[in-house]
């Protein structure tokens, strides 16, 4: 009796729902196994002490006898394991990103898959940069300021769990905040928000950056808030510059679309000099974008013909080999 051959699914569109579910379950299971094993490794006392020395380098000098306070019977065990889990999450974050893109890759087009590696790499580098910025720039200033707030009538009794949660919150907040250029790049690349709108709204963006910095900074002090604000403004401009050069064709199309929308919805006469200047600037940018689009269109037929010739030659060679065989 012939055995039934398993079905081979060529792409995600032909895969049944439960096949997707099973693949997701397998990926999550393999990730959590690695996460748990690394958590126990970092629970190991030498690894735990190394992490503590690195993580609380700026805090330990301010602690009584250089130690945190633990008040519960099981606090020593739970605190060590919590540190191990946080460390394992950081170490396994690239693996989680890989599984995320590997799961959705079959549903992507070929030209979209080419962005998987650079986007993943950029996300990791930006996150690490944010964490390092918080660790080396924000943490020393923030901890010094916080410790200087008590008076002669109060005594510092730093509790380990609270400080661990606070430090990790700061590092993760800055790491996520530094993903701003990637967010801007994605919004423009996916045509969710047009480049001209983001470029013209820089004043609003700068205000939002300062508000975000005031919320995220741990000590609410002016020095750390200004430092983070300036860093985010640089990242905001970097995201726009990256989109302008790497998504040049998309940005040109968005300039033309924005100008056409302005002619339809925002064409009333006005005496507002700023509005008139913005219209004139957009018209000039749209005209330049049209010229660049036309230049690209002129180059397309040659490349298309070359591709057709190459495809024809490849097909002829393949048929020749079949005849010979």
Terminal residue distance: 33 Å
Structural class computed from helices and strand pairing: mainly alpha
Strand segment count = 0
Looking at the structure, what is the overall shape?
flat
What is the number of helices? 12
Strand content: under 5%
Helix/strand order, N-terminal first:
HHHHHHHHHHHH
Average pLDDT figure: 80
Low-confidence stretches: 1-12
The main β sheet shows up as: none
How much helical structure, as a percent, in the residues? over 70%
Radius of gyration in whole Å, from Cα?
28 Å
Task: Write structural notes for this entry.
With 325 residues, the chain is mainly alpha-helical. It has a domain at 11-144 and 158-178. Helix content is 76%, strand content 0%. The protein is flat and about 70 Å long.
Fill in the keyword field for this structure.
325 residues, mainly alpha, 76% helix, flat
The gist of it:
This protein has 325 residues and is mainly alpha-helical. It has helices at 17-43, 45-55, 75-104, 110-113, 116-147, 160-177, 180-189, 195-200, 202-216, 222-246, 248-265, 273-324. The longest helix is centred in the last third of the chain and has 52 residues, at 273-324.
Map the helices and strands.
Blueprint: H1 17-43, H2 45-55, H3 75-104, H4 110-113, H5 116-147, H6 160-177, H7 180-189, H8 195-200, H9 202-216, H10 222-246, H11 248-265, H12 273-324
């Amino acid at each position: 009796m012939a055995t039934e051959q398993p079905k081979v699914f060529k792409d995600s569109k032909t895969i049944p729902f439960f096949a997707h579910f099973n693949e997701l379950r397998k990926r999550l299971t393999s990730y959590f196994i690695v996460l748990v094993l690394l958590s126990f490794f970092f629970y190991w006392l030498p690894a735990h002490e190394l992490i503590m020395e690195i993580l609380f380098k700026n805090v330990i000098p301010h602690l009584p006898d250089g130690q945190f306070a633990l008040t519960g019977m099981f606090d020593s065990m739970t605190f060590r394991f919590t540190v191990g889990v946080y460390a394992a999450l950081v170490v396994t974050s690239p693996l989680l990103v890989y599984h995320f893109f590997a799961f959705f890759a079959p549903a992507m087009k070929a030209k979209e898959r080419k962005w998987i590696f650079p986007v993943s790499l950029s996300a990791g580098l930006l996150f690490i940069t944010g964490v390092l910025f918080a660790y080396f720039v924000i943490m020393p200033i923030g901890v010094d300021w916080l410790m200087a707030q008590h008076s002669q009538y109060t005594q510092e009794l730093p509790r380990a769990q609270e400080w661990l949660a606070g430090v990790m919150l700061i590092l993760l907040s800055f790491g996520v905040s530094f993903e701003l250029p990637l967010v801007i790049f994605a919004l423009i690349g996916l045509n969710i928000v047009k480049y001209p709108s983001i470029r013209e709204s820089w004043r609003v963006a700068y205000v939002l950056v300062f508000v975000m910095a005031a919320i995220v900074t741990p000590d609410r002090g002016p020095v750390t808030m200004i430092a983070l604000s300036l860093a985010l403004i640089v990242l905001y401009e970097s995201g726009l510059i990256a989109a302008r050069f790497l998504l040049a064709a998309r940005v040109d199309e968005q300039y033309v679309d924005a100008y056409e929308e302005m002619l339809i919805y925002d064409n009333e006469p006005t005496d507002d000099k700023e509005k008139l200047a913005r219209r004139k600037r957009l018209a000039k940018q749209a005209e330049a974008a049209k010229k660049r689009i036309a230049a690209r269109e002129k180059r397309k037929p040659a490349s298309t013909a070359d591709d057709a010739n190459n495809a024809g030659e490849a097909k002829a060679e393949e048929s020749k080999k079949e005849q010979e065989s």
